[in-house]
Design goal:
By secondary structure, this protein is of the alpha/beta class. It contains six helices and nine strands. The protein has one domain (2-195): Hypothetical protein pa4535 (3-Layer(aba) Sandwich), CATH 3.40.1540.10. The longest helix has 20 residues, at 2-21.
Length: 199
């Protein structure tokens, strides 16, 4: 049954590729991917080849911006366990329906996403000294399961903990704030929210 082999082998291959992508050895590539999602919206001359590993404590260097990349997941979520279970499910599936899972999306506004990321970034200030934070461009990738991202998207903060703070989600991208010394290309984008759905 060729069709059976197709859906099953394709699913197994897709899960294995995800497992490889999220392996510790690919940490830098994942961080570059996050930075690229931000830059591709307002730097038409941008190419992923211009992203490089940065000196600690930053992760990714682009021109004069030094990005510290953090992913925000649900509390107690274990992505490694998720993919291992998904691989086992794909390998033991006898029909396509065995791969289906309940999907119960919930709405979350970009405003709430930014607030959660902001609080997370604030918690991490204890890891870095004031001088380090003056030279860090903090970027959060919000990656919750089953979330349906919706407006409102207007956000602003007067208290600044890093040289700049940006948020990437599966739908929106935005530079939330910049401080003194931040890259000009980041300063020019503050408060602009890019919606990949074009709405």
């Amino acid at each position: 049954m060729p069709e059976t082999v197709d859906w099953k082998s394709e699913r197994i291959q897709a899960v294995k590729e995800s497992i490889e992508f999220f392996h510790n050895t690919n940490k830098l590539e994942r961080e570059k991917w996050v930075v690229a999602r931000l830059l591709e919206n307002f730097r038409p001359d941008f190419s992923e080849g211009s992203l490089h590993e940065a000196e600690e404590p930053a992760d990714v260097q682009f021109e004069d911006a030094s990005f510290q990349v953090k992913e925000v997941l649900e509390h107690d979520r274990r992505r490694g366990d998720e993919y291992n279970k998904a691989l086992e499910k794909a390998e033991t599936a006898e029909e396509y329906g065995d791969l289906l899972e309940d999907y119960t999306p919930y709405n979350i506004s970009f405003e709430e996403i930014v607030n959660r990321c902001y609080e997370y970034s604030k918690e991490l200030t204890r890891k870095y000294g004031p001088k380090e934070r003056e030279n860090l461009d903090f970027i959060c990738y919000f990656n919750y399961l089953d979330s349906n991202e919706v407006p409102p998207v207007e956000v602003s903060f007067s208290e600044k903990h890093y040289r700049s703070f940006s948020v990437i989600s599966n739908r929106y991208r935005s530079v939330i704030y910049t401080a003194e010394g931040a890259s000009e290309f980041l300063k020019q984008q503050v408060g602009i929210v890019f919606d990949i759905l074009g709405k």
